[in-house]
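Reviewer 2 asked us to include a model.

Predict the structure of this chain.
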Amino acid sequence: MLVKFRVRGNLRFLSHAEMVKVLERACVRGGIQVQYSQGFNPHPRLSLPLPRSVGVESDDELLCVRIDKSIGAQEHRSIGDLCSSIKTKLSEQLPEGLELVSADVGRGVPQPRLATYLLEVRSEYVNERLKARTGALLACESLEVQRQTDHKRAKLKNVDVRGFLKSIELDDNNIEVKCKVSSAGTIRVDEILRLLELDVAKLAGPIRRTNVEWEEG
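Predicted model (C-alpha cells):
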C-alpha cells in the first residue's frame, strides 16, 4: 500500500525515525492490519523511501506499508474498498500537522528520482549577489562540499554534489531547486543553503519539499 501525506508545522522537526514511529502508532490505533517481519524481534513492515531533512515541510511524502491481504479480503469487497477504509482509518489517527492525501495499491517500493524544494527568501536578502550565485552554481563543472559522515566522531569528507543539481530558479522571493536522487545519494538541504550562501535566518518560512518524482519499484 502506498500512502501519500503532507508534513506541516512543528511536526517538520521530527526526525526520520520519529516520523516512522508516529505512523506505526497511527496504524495500530486505526486497526490497520500491517504485516510484521519474521524472527525474534518482529517489526511492522512499513518504510519512508525518501527521508525528509529535519525542519523541512513536505507536500509529497510517501509511506510504503505492507497490509495483511488475507485479513483485508475478509473485511472488504474490493481493493478500492480496502484503500478507502485505510485512508479513513489512518486519517483519523494522524496528529495535527500530518495530512493524508491518498492511499493506493503499489507494486513494490518506489524509488525516488527527483525532488523539488522551495525556499522563500526574505526580501532584504534578494539581491544581485543572490541572483548571480544561483546562475554561477549551475555553470560550475563541480561543486565540492564538506559532508559529515560520522556524527559521533565528527568525520568529514569532500563530496562533489554538482551531479545532483538539476536546476535552480529564482522567481521574485522564491528559489526552486530540483535535485536528482539516485543510488549514489543526493544533495542535502543544508548543503543547498551553504552553496547559495543562505541560512534559515534569511528565509521567510520553512523550506518545503513540494514534489517527488518516483520510479516504480
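The beta strands are 2-7, 46-47, 57-65, 98-104, 111-120, 144-150, 155-160, 165-171, 174-180, 208-215. The longest strand covers residues 111-120. We have added this to the supplementary material.
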